[in-house]
Design goal:
This protein has 496 residues and is mainly α. It is 86% helix and 0% strand.
Length: 496
């Protein structure tokens, strides 16, 4: 990897992390207020509607965003063509949702869903106006603009949502939050990104991008249907309240998982794509990325499992007690999520979109079978099914990585086995240290976190876990660089 590319990668990682972590923290803080003002059923209702919104969003993107990033030198004609396609498709899908909303409300036997979906669906054409700008900035690794845009838009959206919740608007405050955030994102990108569409639509360009993007599109649709069908089943078979408990637990678990996965996905995909013609360098880069990321991801999820009870009671109050066990189970599944993200990125980045689709299809078929088996054991059966299929996905994804860059299941387990066991052992130590201790939630949480971090770092140092030394090297280099800058400034000052 060249020095300039390495520097861009590091800065991209930093700004991408700021983007995702910042917006997640803002949304999380807002969620704390909303969880006290709204009921589990309110969150469940929005969860039901987001099934249809998420599916529609996947159709609008159509895999063209990935195709534009993967293509080495996309033209303005390419960008303009997909821009107009996104807008047209988003309007058609909104109209479809508008006319289907009464049937959807009848399906759930909740009349209020009719009006809610008609309003919430407006997010589709709103989002279509900023898809191209987002992909241009991602391809250029310019995550600073994307980070600032998301932070500002999310802040404005949650402020509106909280004010409306305080005024008694109930579930409509969640709808307003989504729409306002989307509007502000589009406005900011149009003012910050210099790209403007040409008045042109090229079928040749469309077909060229569709050849690669179609498999990404089919994969994304399969993924979206699979993820949201679980919400649909919970909302239909059980209740809106159960879906609310699940949604809230998933949101909390999603903070570290989504932050890491989104950061990795946004940065590694264009970087891996750059290295697609040098598979040896790609493999070396992937191995180092995985070791660095997993050193944080594994212990984070294990620690959250241990501190689940005081964390949820402190943040959301006793009203959300039913979310505790759900959250713990999702943390077990979350340990594999980031690792699966990197492995799927490898396949797409080297241009194997058809292989990617085939793998995703096989995974989702297996996942659906597991979900329906889990359904036989009730509500928690579905939640545990998420754990089972996430670990099965790891073996499928690593088989694909072996095919593409010769980095398969056995080699990855050897590379990551110590990190996984270290995270588990540190969790066991922390759990039994406080199992019979009764403290206020805040103190219980604080002591558990400190104990876990101390145990994990101690074990990592004792057994020479590579991830620890990767970060140690980065920190040492940063300190040396800072000292060098200070010496140069001092020297220049003396010369003057």
């Amino acid at each position: 990897m060249s020095k300039s590319l390495k520097q861009r990668t590091i800065m991209g990682m930093i700004w991408s992390f700021i983007q995702k972590f910042g917006t997640t923290v803002i949304s999380f803080i807002a969620n704390l207020f909303l969880a006290r003002l709204l009921s589990p059923a309110d969150f469940g209702i929005i969860g039901m509607l987001m099934v249809f919104i998420a599916l529609s969003i996947s159709f609008v993107d159509g895999g063209f965003g990935s195709a534009l990033i993967q293509k080495k030198n996309p033209t303005n004609t390419d960008y303009s063509t997909i821009f107009y396609w996104n807008i047209l498709l988003s309007v058609l899908l909104y109209l479809l949702l508008f006319f289907l909303s009464p049937a959807i409300a009848n399906f759930y036997k909740m009349p209020m869903l009719d009006k809610l979906l008609k309003v919430l669906g407006i997010i589709l054409p709103i989002n279509s106006f900023n898809l191209i700008q987002s992909n241009i900035l991602r391809k250029a690794l310019n995550f600073r603009v994307l980070a600032m845009r998301d932070l500002i838009a999310t802040t404005i959206g949650v402020i509106v949502g909280i004010i409306m919740a305080l005024k008694g608007f109930g579930v409509w405050s969640l709808v307003a939050n989504t729409l306002i955030t989307g509007i502000v994102k589009s406005i900011l990108l149009w003012t910050k990104c210099e790209w403007r569409p040409l008045f042109i639509f090229s079928w040749a360009s469309f077909k060229s991008l569709f050849k690669f993007g179609s498999f990404i599109f089919l994969s994304n649709i399969t993924e979206t249907i699979f993820i949201n069908i679980q919400k649909l089943i919970i909302g239909k078979v059980f209740s809106a309240a159960n879906l609310g408990y699940y949604t809230q637990a998933a949101k909390l678990e999603n903070i570290p998982v989504s932050t890491l996965s989104t950061t990795i996905n946004q940065v590694t995909y264009p970087i891996f794509s750059t290295l697609q013609d040098d598979l040896y360098t790609l493999k070396v880069t992937v191995k180092k990325n995985i070791k660095a990321v997993i050193f944080i991801a594994f212990p984070l999820m294990a620690m959250l499992f241990v501190i689940a009870k005081p964390l949820i009671l402190l943040l959301y109050t006793d009203k959300w007690t039913n979310s505790i066990v759900i959250f713990q189970v999702l943390c077990v599944a979350g340990m594999m999520h980031t690792l699966n993200t990197i492995n799927t990125n490898i396949v797409v980045s080297v241009g194997h979109s058809k292989l990617y689709f085939n793998i995703q299809l096989i995974k989702r078929i297996i996942g659906l079978i597991i979900v329906f088996i889990g359904l036989q054991f009730g509500f928690m059966g579905i939640i545990w099914a998420i754990v089972v299929y996430n670990y099965i996905y790891f073996f499928i994804n690593t088989c694909a990585s072996h095919k593409v860059i010769n980095y398969g299941t056995v080699e990855q387990i050897k590379d990551l086995g110590k990190e996984f066991l270290t995270a588990i052992v540190a969790g066991i130590i922390t759990y039994f240290s406080f199992n019979r201790v009764h403290l206020p939630n805040f103190l219980h949480l604080m002591f558990q976190v400190l104990t876990y971090i101390g145990a994990y770092l101690s074990i990592s140092y004792l057994f020479k876990i590579e991830g620890l030394f990767i970060y140690k090297e980065i920190i040492v280099k940063m300190i040396k660089r800072e000292r060098k800058k200070r010496k140069e400034k001092k020297r220049k000052g003396e010369v003057r």
